[in-house]
Amino acid sequence: ALADVPLVAPPGQKHEYSNANYMVLGCILEAVTGQPYAEYVKARILTRLGMNLSEVGSVNGRPSVEPYQFASAGVTSSTEDLALYLKLQLEPSNLKLQQALLPKMQYGFGWYCDAAGNWANHSGEFFSSLGNFQSFMALRPKTRRGFVVLSKLRKGLPSPHWAELEPVLIQAAL
User: Fold this and answer.
1) How confident is the model at residue 105 (pLDDT cuts 50, 70, 90)?
2) How far is CA 98 from CA 12, 78, 92, in A?
3) Residue 59 region, left (φ>0) first, then alpha (ψ -120 to 50), else beta?
4) Taking the CA atoms of the chain, what radius of gyration do you get in angstroms?
5) Angstrom distance (rounded) from CA 45 to CA 144
6) What span, in angstroms and rounded, lies between the C-alpha atoms of 96 and 11?
7) What is the pTM for the complete model shown?
8) Residue ranges of the alpha helices (H) in the chain?
9) Which residues sit opposite 113 in a β-bridge?
10) Mean of the pLDDT values across residues 118-128?
11) pLDDT tens per residue, range 161-174
12) Which residues pair with 58 in a beta bridge?
């Protein structure tokens, strides 16, 4: 059980990403709303933003992950739809909160942040029989600019090393 897993550090001392946190959040969302996570996200977020090419828990209508994973790894999208999502993140009402919190955090709102709060990024990977897919998006709240990179790799080819590419992409685009 999750309760039996020892803490890496005392709360507030160290950040360590964990998909389990998003899985718990997804269960809480389902309990509070009374809706399955995928239906809630589709209706309340994707449809409202016009993200019509995005899916929760499936790729082209075929299941991509187990339902308990939807909140941590279940959204597939397109460049166009992710641009709509970035646009929402860069709205003035959202930026006020982000600009107040991002400089104080290494990770927040699903974004990794630089120490000065100048930019934030998010990346993900999806492995399937169709190939390996990767995404990277970044935003700079102060200039209200962002970008999305999606890639599909054939099996057996090495993945891009985002840690090496991040500074180059961010400097060039933002």
Assistant:
1) low
2) 19, 24, 10
3) beta
4) 17
5) 21
6) 26
7) 0.75
8) 19-33, 37-41, 47-49, 70-73, 79-89, 92-101, 162-173
9) 120
10) 77
11) 666 766 777 776 65
12) 63
140 φ, ψ (degrees, to nearest 5): -120, 100
What is the tally of helices (H) and strands (E) in the chain? 7, 9
Tokens for 31? 């309990």
Joined together, the tokens standing for residue 50 give 């016009």
In 3D space, the residue among 121, 124, 99 whose CA is nearest the CA of residue 112 turns out to be 121
Task: List the structure tokens of 1.
Answer: 């059980």
Bridging pattern class, strands 131-140 and 145-153: antiparallel
The neighbouring-strand residues paired with 125 are 134
Question: Taking a C-beta distance cutoff of 8 angstroms, is the pair 129, 144 a contact?
Answer: no
The number of residues in the chain equals: 174
Task: Give the integer Cα–Cα distance in Å for 155 and 144.
Answer: 36
C-alpha to C-alpha distance for 50 and 79, rounded to whole angstroms: 13
Say if CB 54 and CB 81 are below 8 A apart: yes
Q: What is the pLDDT of residues 36-77, one digit of tens each?
A: 888 999 999 999 999 999 988 877 777 767 776 777 777 888
